[in-house]
Amino acid sequence: xxxxxxxxxxxxxxxxxxxxxxxxxxxxxxxxxxxxxxxxxxxxxxxxxxxxxxxxxxxxxxxxxxxxxxxxxxxxxxxxxxxxxxxxxxxxxxxxxxxxxxxxxxxxxxxxxxxxxxxxxxxxx
Length: 125
Prior knowledge:
- It is a single chain.
- The protein has about 120 residues and is α/β, with parallel strands linked by helices.
- It contains 5 helices and 5 strands.
- The radius of gyration is 15 Å and the shape is globular.
- The protein has a single domain, classed as Glutaredoxin, CATH 3.40.30.10.
């Protein structure tokens, strides 16, 4: 499946969907971003059940600011609408595959329970 270009108007609906969404924050002038692009594209062709999306940080500075993107490329993984990974840096293909396997293997009931515990702890200082 080809990658999707996300904008402010399409971002929230895309990441909120069920399943896995990988988002690459990038810019045309960024050398590491250009090196990572074909790796990301190849993974999108291999994993048709995952949404692979890109955010051009120059065209969507509001999104880059909202997610505090300080370094590009930054890769984020969402599963069932929950951010489960966010890290700057271009990944080689084998590490991207490893990340995909790890995101697939997550027990989302445990993730939700952990989030609930963390939120409860913040509510009780």
